[in-house]
Each structure stands twice: as C-alpha cells, then as structure tokens.
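Researcher: Let's do a round of design. I'm pasting the structure tokens now; please hold your answer until I've finished.
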C-alpha cells in the first residue's frame, strides 16, 4: 500500500472492517493479533453489515426487467396444479398421512409414464442405432437391422452421436414422404418439403416465428380453437403475436363451424392482421374428429381469406368412434383441385409422442410445409439451423413410425399385434370414460371420438365459485385443487385451455391402465357428489 501521511492505516481499516463483517456473520476471530485482542462495538458491527449490503448489488435480471413476453407465457399442462402434485408426492414419501397413497398424474398425455409398453420394433431399431455392435447379435431381427443400417449410413461417421442436416437425415425425410403418400392414397409428397423436428411443438413454434410480423393493428393475428392446446397460446405470448379465439361448438360434439371462424376473423381485423389459422385434428383437449365436409369448408375459408393453415395432426392414429375417420388436410386440399392445392399454404405436423407409440421422451416429429415461397424456404432452413438439428435418436424413432414392418417381414406379426392392442385398449378406455362421466350428476362428457383425453363439463355451485374468488382462483382451478388434495388425482382445469364464459371443465387423460382408470373415475364420482353436497 502507498505510504502517505496516513501510512498503511487505510489497509488496516479495510482489514478491520473485513474482520467486523466476519463477526457480524457469526464467525469468531481466528486468534490473537499482534495489536492485542480487538473488542468490537455494536456500532462497528452495524457498519460492517452495511458494507456487506452495499457489496451485494441489485440483480440484473428481475421480474420487472425480464422479457415481458416470456413472463406472459402460461402452460397449464405443467402449471400450478402439477407443482402442487409434486409437493404432495414429496410429503407422501416423507410418511405424511393423506386420504390416499399415491398421486395419479392424469394431467398429461405421457403414455409410458402411465404404464403403456413400448413398441418392440421401434425400440429394437433405436437400440441398434445407438449401439451398432448389436448389429452382430442374433437377438435382433433382420428387418430391424436393415432399418438401423440405413439410418446409420445417413449419419456422419455412421454414428447417432453426430450432427445431422438442420432439416433432418435425408433418408428419413424420404421415408416420411413415402408414408404421407401411402396415407393419403397417392397424393405426392416431396422430401424437400419435410422438416424433422424436436416433437411437433418445435415445428409449430418455428412456423409461428417466421409468420409473425408487424406492429399495432398490423401485428399478426393467430386464430386458435377454444378450447386449445396451451402450446399455441404460450407460443403466441412468447412471440408477441395476437391471439384470436374461435370457439368450438360443445353442444355439437365440439364441431368446428365456419360461421364462427368468420365471426372471429371479422372482429379481429379491427385490432390486428389475422393471417394464421390453427386446426387441431383430432382435437386436444376435446377429442373431436373432423369430417371431410368440415375440412373442405375450413380450406375454402382459408383460401378465400388468404390465411396460412397450420394442421396439428399428431393424434391421426387415435380415432375410436364408429363412423369417424381421420382425413389429412393435405389430402383433402389436393382433392379440392389445383386452384386450392397450388395456392393454400399449409404446414402439417406429426410426432412420435402420441398415436400407438407414446414415445414422448425421444422428442421426434416432422412437419410438411407446402406452397411455401422459395425465398421463405431458405429463411425457414436458416431459422432451424440455429438449433443445429433435432435429436438424432428422435429422428430414428420417427423413421420407424413412418416405416414400420410390412406384411412378409419378420417383425410384422408382433408389431401389428402390439399396435392394435394399444389402439383397441385406448378405444375401450375412451368409451368407459365417457360412460362413467355421464353417470355422475352435474357432469357431462361429449363422445371421445379420438386423441387421448376427456374434457367433461362440470357444474360448480355458486357458493364454490364465491369461495374460489376469495382464494383468487378460477372456479375450475379451485375444483381441481380440491380434487387433488382429497383424492390425489391430478387433472388440468379447463381455464388453462380456454372455455366459454360461465362454463367449467377439466382435462383428464385416458391413458392409465383400465383397472386404475376405473378406480380413478369412481374417485372423481365420489368427490364430485361430496363437492356438490358441500357447496349446494
């Protein structure tokens, strides 16, 4: 230290203050000093605490300074009710007594977490790709090895651990295109229009990013169904776009009505520029399957109003009701003739997470985008390249969804048996859930035509609504929280998906095993009757 008139006193003072700070934090002096034992006054301690407070500067990132668009994001499927369920699980593990022994998480469509067994062939191929030494094992069938070798040949260094092209492995995109052609009865599909994605969610978010622009009244409006899957409202909030709600018709099995689309569009034109129309078919959370006429009407509406169509078709394998059939928007668009097929811009999405596969954790998916402007195609690839590439194991899993065993191959019999078992079981559970809900007083459930959820309407007495307001909760959140606390059943309130004013719902997956689902539904029935009695 520099020796001026005061010598090293400044340094000694700093040392003393540091010593004071240690004492203020409850630490004892480390022994005698040459100057003798120092006795600290309360004033010195207070001074040291103040210095510590000054040293801890304000955080740069706070709720006030963070991105307000991220702050506005809500995702009900993993919202407050799920956090509460996690707290209850911890309490149960500690031995805290509850009126139940386990939390049943019926809030999300996570098939394997609910006990569904993986499809053997899919896991065999991914295992072979992950550890190619297994290609020499006699334990794996030749048709699985053939697919694994083809996928690995498309990977750098023949390894699943290498980056791929941003658009995905070329041979898998070729398989996706072939799958779409088979599904749609020969309608052509170009691998160059296929983009492999990190689940369908990644593709939906990417397309929305590239679509949203403008400010004020020219800001992009995105039309979404109500009820909707909360990914859409979350992405719209994050991107600062304008959410334009159109309501599905609950009295008519959640049908989509073009007159309602027109109402929503015309009203939105007063405050934004609506240019995107999102469709979920089969519906989530509502389970409706759109008929051909409805899809034709929607396509004509999009063509007429110059709207970019997003078709979320991840539940295309999940159709249960007699008389219902999945029709892809791409197929119907093609069959409506060249005036539509060559002009309507359409992005459609699929995933490994749903269907009969239930492989949520692999995060595999694809989107097909048609009639995209050539220059925008380059911009989309650029945007996707920022995240380098989708998970390569997920790409491999997606390949098996679109390129499964065929008749004559070694694994076909087992594959088709497992696939049909899953889908038949889901159909049985869809009917069971609908029937049991409709036997409960004050509950009404539309037919579960497809997907993997029930979205029953529940009657909530005015007394319960008042109590919910006192707790600063939406009435259906209050109901679902009580259901969780009293039965251990975790479902998602309808307010997280959107619903008409004055109506209340919750979404519940039908994925639990049949016997557990029956117990769950009986518990909901008993709870609801007691709830009505308490708040009548």
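Researcher: That's everything. Go ahead.
Model: Designed sequence:
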């Amino acid at each position: 230290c520099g020796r001026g008139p005061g010598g090293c006193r400044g340094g000694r003072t700093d040392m003393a203050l540091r010593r004071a700070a240690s004492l203020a934090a409850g630490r004892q002096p480390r022994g005698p000093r040459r100057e003798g034992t120092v006795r600290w006054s309360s004033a010195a301690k207070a001074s040291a605490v103040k210095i510590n407070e000054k040293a801890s500067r304000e955080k740069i990132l706070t709720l006030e300074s963070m991105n307000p668009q991220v702050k506005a994001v809500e995702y009900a499927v993993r919202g407050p009710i799920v956090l509460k369920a996690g707290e209850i699980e911890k309490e149960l593990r500690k031995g805290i007594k509850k009126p139940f022994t386990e939390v049943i998480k019926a809030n999300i469509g996570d098939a394997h977490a609910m006990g569904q067994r993986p499809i053997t062939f899919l896991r065999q191929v991914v295992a072979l790709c992950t550890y190619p030494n297994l290609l020499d094992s006699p334990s794996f069938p030749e048709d699985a090895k053939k697919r694994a070798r083809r996928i690995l040949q498309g990977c750098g260094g023949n390894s699943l651990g290498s980056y791929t092209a941003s658009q995905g492995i070329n041979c898998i995109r070729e398989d996706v295109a072939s799958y779409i052609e088979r599904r749609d009865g020969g309608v052509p599909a170009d691998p160059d229009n296929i983009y492999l994605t990190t689940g369908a969610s990644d593709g939906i978010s990417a397309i929305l990013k590239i679509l949203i622009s403008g400010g004020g009244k020219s800001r992009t409006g995105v039309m979404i169904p109500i009820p909707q899957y909360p990914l859409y409202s979350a992405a719209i909030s994050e991107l600062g776009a304008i959410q334009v709600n159109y309501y599905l018709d609950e009295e008519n099995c959640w049908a989509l009505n073009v007159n309602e689309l027109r109402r929503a569009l015309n009203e939105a034109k007063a405050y934004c520029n609506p240019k995107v129309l999102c469709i979920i078919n089969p519906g989530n959370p509502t389970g409706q399957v759109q008929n051909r006429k409805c899809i034709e009407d929607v396509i004509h509406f999009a063509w007429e109003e110059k709207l970019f169509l997003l078709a979320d078709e991840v539940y295309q394998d999940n159709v249960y009701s007699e008389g219902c059939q999945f029709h892809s928007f791409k197929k119907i668009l093609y069959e409506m003739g060249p005036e539509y097929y060559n002009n309507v811009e359409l992005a459609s999405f699929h995933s490994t997470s749903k269907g009969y596969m239930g492989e949520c954790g692999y995060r595999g998916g694809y989107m097909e985008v048609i009639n995209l402007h050539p220059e925008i195609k380059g911009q989309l690839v650029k945007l996707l390249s920022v995240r380098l590439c989708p998970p390569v194991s997920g790409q491999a899993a997606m390949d098996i969804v679109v390129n499964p065993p065929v008749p004559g191959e070694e694994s076909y019999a087992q594959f088709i048996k497992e696939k049909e078992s899953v889908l038949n079981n889901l159909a049985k559970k869809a009917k069971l859930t609908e029937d049991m809900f409709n036997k409960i007083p004050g509950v009404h459930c539309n037919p579960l035509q497809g997907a993997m959820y029930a979205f029953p309407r529940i009657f909530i007495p005015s007394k319960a609504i008042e109590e919910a307001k006192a707790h600063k909760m939406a009435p259906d959140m209050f109901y679902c929280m009580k259901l969780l606390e009293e039965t251990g059943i975790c479902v998602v309130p309808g307010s997280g998906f959107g619903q008409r004013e004055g109506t209340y719902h919750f979404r519940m997956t039908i994925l639990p095993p049949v016997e557990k689902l029956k117990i769950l539904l009986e518990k909901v029935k008993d709870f609801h009757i007691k709830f009505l009695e308490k708040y009548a």
